[in-house]
């Protein structure tokens, strides 16, 4: 593996650098590109790969590897055939607030694009989760999540037809489902179980969200209940790992 000439063994340890002090060329280029990004405004384009390779006296593959890292970290994004500076990550609270509310709080415009809405007999595993009889009709609504018209996620919602009978005619799929339940049906959320994991999107999911299949995603599974403790919805949401972070506030609970 090639290393920059100025990184000799015994040099001071730097962030992300092994103890022996040797740094792969792509990492050194990444550090320089990161400093460049700090001087540019959101949406401003970086020089081409060829220009960066000449400027830093490295191969274009070394530049690509450095750019890939910065893309995965969410500091850059692809625009057409070029690379531009990305804005700050969207910070979503881990709470019962809807996606719409979370995005609006950050001064961005939320939106959703309907991919499909259909009803089908509820399978056994889902029926147990949302506490309906097996075979009872349920809705499946799939929507792409938008922030300022940028595709940032994919949401699949499962809800019993008996709870929301007119979902196909009385609901605007571009709007907040939580607001519809609250304002039109009088359903108030009480609590939810939520689990987060990192995954890679399937080819279909990557195509819908507009990302490379290799981009890490944050996958949220949520089972929401009303104030009476009855399940309302089962939701599976993919968020782009380069565009989203999550936060929560922890209290001082009991300790073992």
TrEMBL record:
Gene Ontology molecular function: any one: DNA binding
Pfam families, A to Z: GntR (PF00392), UTRA (PF07702)
PANTHER family: GNTR-FAMILY TRANSCRIPTIONAL REGULATOR, MANNOSYL-D-GLYCERATE TRANSPORT/METABOLISM SYSTEM REPRESSOR MNGR-RELATED
GO term, biological process aspect, one: negative regulation of DNA-templated transcription
Protein name (Swiss-Prot/TrEMBL): GntR family transcriptional regulator
Region of interest (Disordered), ranges: 1-20
Gene3D superfamilies, per the entry: Chorismate lyase-like (3.40.1410.10), Winged helix-like DNA-binding domain superfamily/Winged helix DNA-binding domain (1.10.10.10)
Domain of life: Bacteria
Record domain HTH gntR-type: where: 23-88
UniProt keyword terms in alphabetical order: DNA-binding, Transcription, Transcription regulation
UniProt-listed InterPro entries: Bact_HTH_transcr_reg, Chorismate_lyase_/UTRA_dom_sf, Tscrpt_reg_HTH_GntR, UTRA, WH-like_DNA-bd_sf, WH_DNA-bd_sf
Organism: Streptomyces odorifer
